[in-house]
Structures are given as structure tokens and as C-alpha cells.
Amino acid sequence: MRIVMIGSGYVGLVSGACLSEFGHDVVCVDTDIAKIEGLKVGKIPIYEPGLDEVVAANVKSGRLSFETDLKAAMEAAEAVFIAVGTPSRRGDGHADLSYVFAAAEEIAHNLKGYTVVVTKSTVPVGTNKKVAEIIKKVRPDADFDVASNPEFLREGSAIEDFRRPDRVVVGCHSDRARAVMREIYRPLYLNETPIVFTTCESSEIIKYASNAFLAAKITFINEMANLCEAVDANVQDVARGMGLDGRIGNKFLHAGPGYGGSCFPKDTLALLKTCQEYGTPTKIIEAVVAVNDARKIQMGAKIEKAFGGVAGKTIAILGLTFKPNTDDMRDAPSLVIVPYLKDKGAKIKAFDPEGMKEAKKHFEVEWCNETYETLQGADGLVILTEWNEFRALDLGKVKSLLKRPLLVDLRNIYRPDMMASAGFQYVSVGRPD
Ligand code: UGA
């Protein structure tokens, strides 16, 4: 198959590279000339483990290339994917679809022969229909179908998620488009990945409903963690006991400082807006959003309590990104927690393996180059993100560097009994101290 991927951001680049690995000829197109020039010489603009190798191997094999000129790229394309951003629109929380619609118009001008126009960007219900209308308006003669094909990739494990998805969802309204989509994902039939064929509308909802459901699951366990703290119960035992019920499932039941990232906060808000717009408001998602927003402040207060007040104290913070294995700081809990602590008069020393370049745009703290330098002379340590390198700290060294052996672990990566025998005052989430 000959495929064009419009948008070489996170989703476009990962999807384009992985589709070329499936054996297709893929051209990734982006209007950002510097980005495309960089990609041509192997410079990957985002941090995603394993992506550089997949890109390099497929560029070498000739199946993957990068262009700024859509017209040339589309010459013989059988499918064109739209993988541009759909950020929250300033002011109202709706998804901003201007990039999607601009891409649709440009595609329309360059269509040649039967083509499936596939939306991979996360778009509210009804968008694929609008994409089809835009194309028809520009080119009433065009021979095309639209298809909705949402992505379910997690940052940090996107390559694995693409290679071994739980499912592929495709919304389209013709057998011809279905056949093209089936061919694109043919390699996945080998490991019996279910492919859910449905309408564009249902497919669009599946994406938002999945993210909102996962966000609700996290928020639910976070509230149970609060109850556990109040009654000396253990939220990890509660999550395990719940999760073994196959109807509930054990994933996304890790209590923590609240969900962040480029997807859950944006998509829950957008779904909320869509539901309101269609006169079918959702109180559940409204509560999820509000509880998660409040949670980040609560975590600031939790740290303050553990330190017995933070004014004039130095706090060492390890981890700033919204989760490990990414440099993404979007809606990271640290963006609320660090300013909260600073406002209360704390001095912050911080280190993150990949996120500091981005974090520097958001707040000013004492930046450190590695873990143990961060701890030197601090009144206590706070772990905000569960990077692997923070999971096996040399506790003796930690203790000798800190003024006081205090660890606030908002990701529950240590065991309370182990920390107690190492002589630490240890505060975690939803577990007895
Ligand atoms: C999420 C979804 O998991 C993907 O399926 C989806 O494709 C993607 O959004 C998207 O829409 O593009 P991502 O945002 O990369 O992926 O990260 P997750 O691993 O889902 O984590 C999101 C947030 O929830 C993080 O802040 C994480 O720390 C938090 N989380 C996750 C918890 O607090 N507890 C958990 O049990 C799981």
C-alpha cells in the first residue's frame, strides 16, 4: 500500500514509521520545514523509546520518507492519514479542528484516483462527516471515502502499542474503504488482533469514551486512596482485590497524583463539551475532571503536611513529566504542585531525566543534573514521576544526603515496611505510613 501521513507530530510519526514497518510505502508530510529536514537526516523531534530505530531501519529500506510537498507525496497514494493536532480550543474546551479541516482541504486539491482519507487525529463525533463534506465541496468529482481510525498509543510505549494493539478500530461506510483498511492492518491479523469495523460516528466516540473511562478509573482509585488513608487501609490491596474481577480489570488502578498528559485532560473536556452540545450531559466526566483538578492541589497540601510546613525548607523533587519515558510536561501534576510549594515559601531542587528542558519554560527552581545532587542538603525528598532510575535508589546514600530522612512518594514505588526499616519517615498514596 502507498500511504501518506499528514502531520509528523507524535501520532503521525509513530504511526507512519510503524506502518512502514508493516511493509507499506509511507511518506510523512509536514508543513514544518525544519522538522522535515531534521527527519531526513535522522533527527527525531520527540522523545519516544525505540522510535529512532524504527525510523532509521525503514528509511534505509526505502519504505519511509519525509516531505513538505503534499502534492508530490499524494501522486499514487491509496490512503491519506490525517494525524494533525486537535488541541483544546482556548476558552471553551472544545477540540480545535482547524488543522484537521485545513488538511482535508489540501487533500481535496491533490486527490488522484480512488483514495481513502483516514482520520487518525482525535476528533469529536461528526468530524469525519465534515471532512467528507469539505472534500466534496472542493472536488465534487473526487473518488474517495473517509475512514475514522483512532489511535490508542501511550507515550513511552507507543511503538509496542502500535505493534501489538488490544484492538484496531475502523469507522467507514463502504466495502471499498473497509478493504483498504483491512489491507493496511493485515500484518496484525497474524497475531489475531481484533479489528472493530463500525461507522465513523461510533468510531469517533470509541476514542473519547475509552480515554474518559480510563481517566474515570484512575480518578476512582484516587478517591479510594483518600478513604484508605483515613482508615489505615492499603489502596494497592484494594486495587488488586478489585482488579482480579475480570469485569473490572487490574489496569489503570494505580493511585497517584492525578492523571496528566496531552490526552486525558484534553479529551475528557472535549467529550464533556460534545455531550452538552447534544443535550446529553455527562455528570460522571464532569466529576472526573473536577476531582482530578482538585487532586493536584491536594497533593501539594499532602507534601506540606508531611514536611510539617514548607516555608523556608528545601524540597528535592525527582520526576516532573506527567509519566515516565517521555519528555512531555503537558498537564503534568508537577505544573500545579511545584508552584504550590513555591507559593508556600519552599525552595525547590529538581531533576527529571528527560523533562527539564520543557519544565524550564514553566517554572524556575534549582535545576540539578542527576538524582543524588538533587538530594544534597534538602529537608526531604518528593517523588513525582516513577522513572525506573528512581525505583532503586541507594537508600543509605539518600539518607546521608538529606537533612532529614523524609520521603514523600506520590507513585508508591517503595514499600512502607522497607522504608521503615531503612529509617525513613515515608509518606505514600493510600497506604498506611
Ligand atoms: C493515553 C491512553 O492510555 C492511550 O490509550 C491513548 O492513545 C492516549 O492517551 C491518547 O489519547 O493519545 P498517555 O496519555 O500517553 O495515553 O498515558 P497513560 O499511560 O494513559 O497515562 C495518563 C496519565 O494517567 C498519566 O499521568 C499517568 O501517570 C496516569 N495514570 C495512569 C495513573 O495515575 N494511574 C494509572 O493507573 C494509570
From TrEMBL:
InterPro entries noted in UniProt: 6-PGluconate_DH-like_C_sf, NAD(P)-bd_dom_sf, UDP-Glc/GDP-Man, UDP-Glc/GDP-Man_DH_C, UDP-Glc/GDP-Man_DH_C_sf, UDP-Glc/GDP-Man_DH_dimer, UDP-Glc/GDP-Man_DH_N, UDPglc_DH_bac
Reaction catalysed by this enzyme: UDP-alpha-D-glucose + 2 NAD(+) + H2O = UDP-alpha-D-glucuronate + 2 NADH + 3 H(+)
Pathway this chain belongs to: Nucleotide-sugar biosynthesis; UDP-alpha-D-glucuronate biosynthesis; UDP-alpha-D-glucuronate from UDP-alpha-D-glucose: step 1/1
Keyword Calcium set for record: no
Residues in UDP-glucose/GDP-mannose dehydrogenase C-terminal domain copies: 316-416
EC number(s) from the headed UniProt entry: 1.1.1.22
Keywords: NAD, Oxidoreductase
PANTHER family in alphabetical order: UDP-GLUCOSE 6-DEHYDROGENASE TUAD
Family membership noted in the UniProt record: Belongs to the UDP-glucose/GDP-mannose dehydrogenase family.
Record-linked NCBIfam families: NDP-sugDHase
Protein's name in the database: UDP-glucose 6-dehydrogenase
